[in-house]
Amino acid sequence: MTSAYALSPQDRSSFDRNGFVKLRQVLDPDQLDLFAPVITDSVIDLNTQHLPLAERDTYGKAFLQVSNLWQHNDRVADFVRSPDLARLAAELLGVASVRLYHDQALYKEPGGGITPWHADQYYWPLSSDRCVTVWVPLQDTPADMGPLAFAAGSHRFEVGRDLPISDESEAELQRLLAEQDFPLDDAPYQLGDVSYHLGWTFHRAGPNSSSRPRRVMTVIYMDAEMRITEPVNEHQQTDIRTWMPGAAPGDPAATELNPVLYPPAG
């Protein structure tokens, strides 16, 4: 996956101010159309969620979630290792180099429910906020498909950071964020658009009321100098075992599963 997109000063200031930025036509739709079926085939092969939608909890209804596809498919690895997507992550974070934390495919099925309000970094045992997710839809994503929605400026709001994604986080954060009057950005995406958001930026997504799956691929990047912190919940303990195997609190977050993606090797 390649892109010549150049960040503008407005892109950078918007990211710093809001904790996210939506970038229009970063990727060539024709390239995305080549990667989409490969990613989808990997999701189908690796998916372990087989319950009917009606029998799942809120999290299970939100999406099919498959992680580290890059380890299982070389073509998906080409996507995940894109030096151009990683370059934009490094420039937005203001760091010299970024490495991979992990990837996730998030497929919201037709009839799939909401993705509750949450902040990703609740799950991450990382020593700073210099970590960012790129959200790449693999089709046009209008309002009825559940595009990602952000509370602008919420990356500086420290209340609610102890809430895992759940019905409780949806209700409690909806109240807390409304009290602070954070603007909501839930604009649709066109194929080729992407967004980048910080780990502490609160976000959610509506249901997919369309007849088509909402197919999204994400890559999570972190400052190449990131270190692992002492986990504060069981999810962070799992993350260390899963995404940084063999490492321990205090170590660099630099295992074989966390290659440097920008600058590219060689």
Automatic annotation (TrEMBL):
**A GO molecular-function descriptor:** dioxygenase activity
Q: What InterPro entries does the entry give?
A: Phytyl_CoA_dOase-like
Q: Which organism is it from?
A: Microlunatus panaciterrae
Please provide the record's keywords in A-Z order. Answer: Dioxygenase, Oxidoreductase
This protein's name: Ectoine hydroxylase-related dioxygenase (Phytanoyl-CoA dioxygenase family)
The uppermost taxa in this organism's lineage are: Bacteria, Bacillati, Actinomycetota, Actinomycetes, Propionibacteriales
Ranges for region Disordered: 247-266
Q: Which Pfam families does the annotation name?
A: PhyH
